[in-house]
Amino acid sequence: MIKYNNLKLDNQLCFSLYALSREIIKLYKPLLDELNLTYTQYLVMLVLWEEEKSTVKHLGNRLHLDSGTLTPLLKKLESMGLIRKYRSEYDDRVVIAKLTKEGEELQEKAKNIPSKMLCSINIEEKKVKKLKNELDEVLENLKL
């Protein structure tokens, strides 16, 4: 039936990435449920655990999220007491998200998630790092 081999689903990089992403996020779900976080909330927390505070614009850039997606995420994290948002004293157009004490303490509960995930996907850490580097390269090329 198919006339064009390049239109076969099995030949689509985008489908492999999409399917893998969905499966990985499913593996994260029970681990993140223990922290009462969604996957995207977890990503925000990862950045803030690294940097302690960040402008909303910087968070959006790091996570490849637009403000329409990020704003409700931050609002929810703030209502959970994990972050505090405030305007910059130098430019009140700039909104900053900062970890609260509770947000900092949550990092301790999350510290084993990466190793649990590595065990779940059953691939050598070296291969995972190589794959991540290759995906990062593709992502960077898309920005050009």
Walk me through the structure.
The chain is mainly alpha-helical. The chain has seven helices and three strands; from the N terminus they run H-H-E-H-H-E-E-H-H-H. A three-stranded antiparallel beta sheet has the order 1-3-2. The protein is globular, with a radius of gyration of 18 Å. The model has no long low-confidence stretch (mean pLDDT 95).
Concise summary:
With 144 residues, the chain is mainly alpha-helical. The protein has a domain of 72 residues: Winged helix-like DNA-binding domain superfamily/Winged helix DNA-binding domain (Arc Repressor Mutant, subunit A).
Task: Estimate the global geometry from the Cα principal axes.
Answer: globular
- Quote the distance from N terminus to C terminus: 37 Å
CATH architecture descriptor text of the domain at 39-110:
Orthogonal Bundle
Q: Mind telling me the C-alpha Rg?
A: 18 Å
Helix content: 55-70%
**For the record, what is the CATH homologous superfamily label of the domain at 39-110?**
Winged helix-like DNA-binding domain superfamily/Winged helix DNA-binding domain
Side by side, the strands of the main sheet go 1-3-2
* Content-based structural category: mainly alpha
Q: Can you write the helix and strand succession as a string?
A: HHEHHEEHHH
Query: What would the CATH topology of the domain at 39-110 be?
Result: Arc Repressor Mutant, subunit A
* Uncertain regions spanning at least 5 consecutive residues: none
What is the top-level CATH class of the domain at 39-110? Mainly Alpha
Query: What is the residue-mean pLDDT, rounded to a whole number?
Result: 95
Main sheet specs: 3 strands, antiparallel
Using DSSP, what is the number of strands? 3
